[in-house]
Amino acid sequence: MNTTDTATILEPCFKLKGSRVTITILELYEYDYATFNQQLAETVRSAPDFFQQTPVILSLERCKDTGAIDFIEIGDLCREYGLVPVAIRGGSEDQLLSANVAGLPHLPINIAKPPKATENKSEVKPETAAADNLLITTPIRSGQQVYAKGGDLIIVAPVSAGAEVLADGNIHIYGPLRGRALAGVNGNKSARIFCQSLEAELISIAGNYKVNEDLQNENWKKNIQAQLIGEQLVVTPF
User: Fold this and answer.
1) Which of 206, 197, 204, 27 is nearest to 214 (CA)?
2) How confident is the model over 201-225, as pLDDT tens digits?
3) pTM more than 0.70
4) Band of the pLDDT at 73, cuts 50, 70, 90?
5) Rounded to an integer, what distance in angstroms lies between the CA atom of residue 182 and that of residue 203?
6) Residue 39: which H helix or E strand, with range?
7) Which of 15, 34, 124, 214 is 20 to 30 A from 94, comparing alpha carbons?
């Protein structure tokens, strides 16, 4: 074997990196095959394009049943509708054992709450930072992501379809919002989203979200604010 062949073999073929990945949480309150199947079908039918190969974490923190759950069955149902379970959070010892049999790892409760960005997205650096708030004055293009950790995100430019903007606090967009906007990503239910033209693929506050099909009503392409009232995400003119 020559030197060139040896060098080729020794070159690393992968690299593990940390990333911020936005992920959907499926909160399970109780499980019955027929009911779960029916309600999941109705949910996916309301936004079929959104639920395609969507990774989800199954949260059992509010599950009434502490007994064993057939996660193999739940996994098959989820995948049938485009959801891909990747882990569970919370749960009893019996449920953890059932999840382990189904090949689902267990995440600590304080993990997976802050949304994070996918590895293949480029991040936009802030032009101005005041305290923990971020000010962005350039357009956010498709495939880009901005995350305001610990504060508000202010964007004085359009947010394109396929882009993603996140903040621990509020999100202010002085322009059209055509991508995804997730405010209060660390659980801040008082966070709000403001934009001058609502054309979003998805908006979310503290994990409560609406997708494009839900948003196309009298507020579409209008100046709006979005906020949580109870557990309901409400969009009103602003």
Assistant:
1) 204
2) 999 999 898 988 889 999 999 999 9
3) no
4) very high
5) 6
6) helix 33-46
7) 34
H-run or E-run covering 99: helix 93-101
DSSP β-ladder status, 193-198 and 83-89: unpaired
Please state, in angstroms and rounded to a whole number, the distance separating the CA atoms of residues 229 and 190: 9
Helix (H) or strand (E) holding 214: helix 212-215
- Phi/psi for 136 (5° steps) reads -115, 130
Structure tokens at 216: 């196309």
Answer yes or no: are the C-beta atoms of 59 and 26 closer than 8 Å. Answer: yes
Bridge partner residues of 16 (DSSP) = none
- Which residues, in sequence order, are CB contacts of 238 under 8 Å at separation 6+? 194, 223, 224, 225
- Sorted by where each starts, the structural domains of the chain and their CATH numbers stand as 24-107 (3.30.70.260), 122-237 (2.160.20.70)
CA distance 86 to 61: 16
**Is the Cβ–Cβ distance between 202 and 180 less than 8 Å?**
yes
